[in-house]
Amino acid sequence: MRNLNAVVFAALLAAAHGVHADNSALVAQNGDENNANLDQTGMLNEAVVRQNGTANDATIYQGVIAEQNAAEIVQVGSDNEASIYQGDESHFASANIYQRGTGNRADVRQIWFTNDLQASSVGDGNAVAVTQQGFATGAARQVGNENTLTLTQDGVYHGTNAAIYQVGDDNLATVGQGDGGVVQLAQNGNSNTAQIDQYSLFGEVVFNQAGDNNLLAVEQSGRDNGFRGSSTENDNSVELVQWFDGNRASVVQTGDSNIADIRQLAEYNEARVSQSGNANAAYISQAAANMTAIIQQSGNGNSATVSQQ
């Protein structure tokens, strides 16, 4: 149904206005050995490339029946690469890539309707890869070196929204979202890792990692699951699994080498973990409905396990 609607809609617009009408393209280059390739075969599309430096490469593709899309690439520095692909069935999409430094990479793919992305990397050796498959809104910001961000969004009917910020070096974020999802992730420090698989309807993840070598791993399925929290300092670990509907969880860690592991395997559960100190461990497993578990740890080397069935 998605592809059929897009084809019919584009055909009607083509009949009314004429294919390939009123596209605009601008390329501005200052420096040496820069390359830009713009390909427009739809209508009412806009493409802009601005490059200042040496050996930068930019590619924009706006497809055969794509219409009213906007794409902009700005690169300052050397050996940066960026590409925006707004597919043959892409409509009303907007993508903006800004890269400053050396050896940064950005790859954006937008298909179907009403995608929007703002992405930037400032530093050296950063990478951004984004795929938006309809009604998706994304913001990706990286400041530092050798950071990597991968984002996949599919809004389907209700839309999806992600804002991901990484400041420091060698941070890694991988986020996949289904319909109605919200992700707000910030990593400030070095060598932090976040893996978020949010394929629930109306899932929410809001989390901040500040320090070095922290780990966040989240899996959400079902509907209306929510998770919030933060890790501050170094070598902390948070793992969360939420299945079914209506689960809520929160984790706040302050200190080093703390572990929080929450498994919500039924519906309408609540789990909260608070850790202040070093080398504390908290484990919560909820395999029945309407359960509540709270673990508070202050000090060093504490361990607690709660199992609800």
Give a description of the structure.
This protein has one domain. It is mainly beta and 309 residues long. The N terminus is likely disordered. A 13-stranded parallel beta sheet has the order 1-3-5-7-9-11-13-15-17-19-21-23-25, with no helix packed on it. It has a 13-stranded parallel beta sheet with strand order 2-4-6-8-10-12-14-16-18-20-22-24-26. It contains one helix and 26 strands.
Strand neighbour order, sheet with most strands? 1-3-5-7-9-11-13-15-17-19-21-23-25
Instruction: Report the major sheet.
Output: 13 strands, parallel
Helix content: under 10%
Uncertain runs: 1-20
Mean pLDDT: 92
Please provide the count of β strands. 26
Helix/strand order: HEEEEEEEEEEEEEEEEEEEEEEEEEE
Through-space gap between termini: 42 Å
Shape from CA axes?
A: flat
What structural category characterises the helix and strand content?
Answer: mainly beta
The tally of helices reads: 1
